[in-house]
Amino acid sequence: MTNHWVDIKNADVILVMGGNSAEAHPCGFKWVVEAKAHRGAKLIVVDPRFNRTASVADLYAPIRTGTDIAFLGGVIRYLLSNDKIQHEYVKNYTDFTFIVRDDFAFSNGLYSGYDSQTRSYDKSTWEYEFDADGYVKSDPSLRHPRCVYQLLKAHYSSYTPEMVESICGTPKEKFLQVCEMLATTSSPGKAGTLLYALGWTQHSIGSQIVRTGAMVQLLLGNIGIAGGGVNALRGHSNIQGLTDLGLLSQMLPGYLTLPNESEQEYQKYASSRTLKPLRPNQLSYYQHFPALFVSLMKAWWGQAATAENDWAYSYLPKWDKPYDVLQVVELMSQGKMTGYVCQGFNLIASVPDKAKIIDGLGKLKWLVIMDPLATETSEFWKNYGPFNDVDPSSIQTEVFRLPTNCFAEENGSVVSSSRVLQWHWKGAEPPGEARSDLDIMGGIFTRIRDLYRKKGGAFPDPILNLTWPYEDPESPRPDELAREYNGWEVKAASDYDTKKLVETAGRQLSGFEQLRDDGSTASGCWIFCGAWTEEGNQMGRRDNSDPTGIGQTLGWAWAWPANRRVLYNRASCDTDGKPFDPTRKLVQWNGSAWVGDDVPDYKVDEAPSLGMGPFVLNPEGVARFFARNEMNEGPFPVHYEPIETPLGYNPLYPDHPNVTNNPVARIFPSDRKKIGNARDFPHTATTYRLTEHFHFWTKHARLNAILQPEQFVEISEELAHSIGVVSGDRVKVSSFRGHIVAVAVVTKRIRTLTIEGKHVQTVGIPLHWGFKGAAKPGYLTNTLTPSVGDGNTQTPEFKSFLVKVEKA
Ligand SMILES: Nc1nc2c(c(=O)[nH]1)N[C@H]1C(S)=C(S)[C@@H](COP(=O)(O)OP(=O)(O)OC[C@H]3O[C@@H](n4cnc5c(=O)[nH]c(N)nc54)[C@H](O)[C@@H]3O)O[C@H]1N2
Ligand SMILES: Nc1nc2c(c(=O)[nH]1)N[C@H]1C(S)=C(S)[C@@H](COP(=O)(O)OP(=O)(O)OC[C@H]3O[C@@H](n4cnc5c(=O)[nH]c(N)nc54)[C@H](O)[C@@H]3O)O[C@H]1N2
Ligand SMILES: [Mo]
């Protein structure tokens, strides 16, 4: 979230699109209810289903799954052509006036530089035009035909309300009502917020959907202000912490990136990430990249990381390809993996194309499961009748189960969607043989290190030299790890000779501005610097005072970065530093400093007259409509159909089959053979969650199993009628990958959509059932889903695929 949960109460308009927060985030949804009750805020829901959030909305608009870019592109066109944009904001705080290279091109659904063989782009033309000093050229009059504003206007000119209706199935009047309601927030005194989750991300074009939403918010001047923002409502309680700590195959902690195989030299790696300002007098925070990176390497490798060895740069793996779940399952199924450690993850339940995963797991030599429960994955080799129809005698994989505790049985921190790190304390001892994940990992690490010590190996240095300064090496404590991710002054090289981190390290740092690039500071995650200072554990603070009543509780726990609650908050003020809306003030310029109810996202003594932009991480200092070379599909999002499309063509480019779907979506050749078409599988399906269950684990708890005992699918009255089914009948739902059988719930909440003149049915499939637990055994929903991923994140396309529904 750019903003935070409590801040939602400051909004005048709330758009929930690509999420169902009343159902999946019921506690946080309380702030939507507060905004409605106390501010008269309007709630808009755009969703294929009239869901639980829609049931309390002021305005609901249906949409076909996977078509949100068409819808949002239509909103962009509406805002531009009806002059419903916040002029001062877009002109000064975005790239509106910047000029783009003249060899940048877009035609018939493709950008310049596409290679159909590799399904990727040469992005070199996706760039601004620079002057002799290396600064971006701009045209404040906005008349230059290649300024970002003009390109944006031209790009979305075909996204008319009629086109939106035809692609999305959203009636034109509904669509225009949504536009009008959103447009009210273009005035500087109004705030609109955007809440999204998987309905946007789990598509082959998901990241670009999110970007289009952000573009709408920029046009409206809604980013950086109280009651505004682009707010990803995250999933598992600590999934925000997972990405913050870089637990993705190409990431390092704090959103630093791991080198790829073309970056064998430290200088090459560092210089491409040390970003010089692209406009005069911009902060361009990543000018400090070496300080962040060197401090990380000092935290990891201590005295083995020196200026002479480029801070142990050679210890870092250099990636050849992303190792996301789709890739991992692909490698397993090709027989290229020996073993797999599955920690807090129910692979066969949560990843697409169950048959492919079972095949892959069966080719492993060993599988380690770390989980408090007996999951479907731990018993993938067992026959559970129709629900898991395998032959155990054909599977040789050795499965080890290591029972873990759960979060309530240990101390630690959890990062919420608000970026708030909140410490929690152990509530009970783990039962039976269960041990904490830290114990298990500590035990595995020390044993592997012993093996390297004894036997050497091709390159033992990264393992042998890893800093492991915990009092009990077999069992690092959460507070030791927290001090490490915060970071400390490196007193002397010899500090690392003893093993007690707490007593031997220098002073704890109080913020990332103290990090240096000369090896004299260490920090395991620069954005967390400030969480555990000399004053102690900031995450354990519990002061909920809120001086001005807008929810800025700076004394409650600790938020990254720098305890700031609203990112880009300098954008809440005009160019003179005066708040656009004095009733929802976050920060302001008092003549000599930036002060206010939030930690300024800016240099505190930087006078507004000097012209520094509020988007301080971007080298241009402003927010981007034109994404330059950041996104794999191109600088402005384009509507492409889901990989399994009920149409079979892209209504924007009907004569160009090469752009029916996202031209850079992730599809392995073996998976391409498993894509269904609308002739065999005429209905569009989507999958989602229910309040009463948490994924695949609460079905083990009897009370939850009583609340939602059995697998069901939701279908429209028209579809039910056409296949002769009434509520309570069983239906067989098939895709190209397999089938499930479940109870039909016939409902008005899912309606028949008219797309390009033809009727399209949406089938709603909750994901919670499986063959383990206290609920009635069921099929895994991911028996049906395609192994296809987003072009940037590789997130699977769980939210849009083709099925056929029949009476069972
Ligand atoms: N009770 C409970 N709460 C949970 C979870 C749980 O399992 N149980 N899981 C947690 C996790 S890990 C996550 S990631 C979050 C997920 O939170 P959400 O993303 O809110 O949850 P979902 O139910 O997957 O999907 C949200 C909505 O997206 C809609 N949708 C599907 N396709 C599209 C589309 O193309 N466009 C639009 N606009 N909408 C679409 C669906 O109809 C659904 O209403 O929930 C978290 N909260
Ligand atoms: N079709 C479809 N598929 C989806 C989705 C969808 O919307 N549609 N959503 C996707 C999303 S967003 C998510 S997040 C995934 C969820 O997929 P998973 O994360 O695989 O699902 P969970 O059931 O939450 O599995 C978490 C496991 O962690 C265990 N666990 C709990 N606490 C601890 C602990 O402290 N230590 C360890 N080691 N284990 C613990 C639980 O017992 C559980 O078995 O599913 C994805 N799959
Ligand atoms: Mo999730």
UniProtKB/TrEMBL annotation:
It is found in: Periplasm. It comes from the Bacteria. GO terms for biological process: anaerobic respiration. Residues 686-801 form the Molybdopterin dinucleotide-binding domain. GO terms for molecular function: 4 iron, 4 sulfur cluster binding; electron transfer activity; formate dehydrogenase (cytochrome-c-553) activity; formate dehydrogenase (NAD+) activity; molybdenum ion binding; molybdopterin cofactor binding. The keyword Oxidoreductase applies. Its cofactor is [4Fe-4S] cluster. GO terms for cellular component: periplasmic space. Residues 2-377 form the Molybdopterin oxidoreductase domain. InterPro entries: Asp_de-COase-like_dom_sf, Formate-DH-alph_fdnG, MoPterin_dinucl-bd_dom, Mopterin_OxRdtase. SUPFAM superfamilies: ADC-like, Formate dehydrogenase/DMSO reductase, domains 1-3. Pfam families: Molybdopterin, Molydop_binding. The keyword Signal applies. Keywords: 4Fe-4S, Iron, Iron-sulfur, Metal-binding, Oxidoreductase, Periplasm, Selenocysteine, Signal. NCBIfam families: formate-DH-alph. Belongs to the prokaryotic molybdopterin-containing oxidoreductase family. This is Formate dehydrogenase-N subunit alpha. It comes from Paraburkholderia pallida. The lineage of its organism: Bacteria, Pseudomonadati, Pseudomonadota, Betaproteobacteria, Burkholderiales.
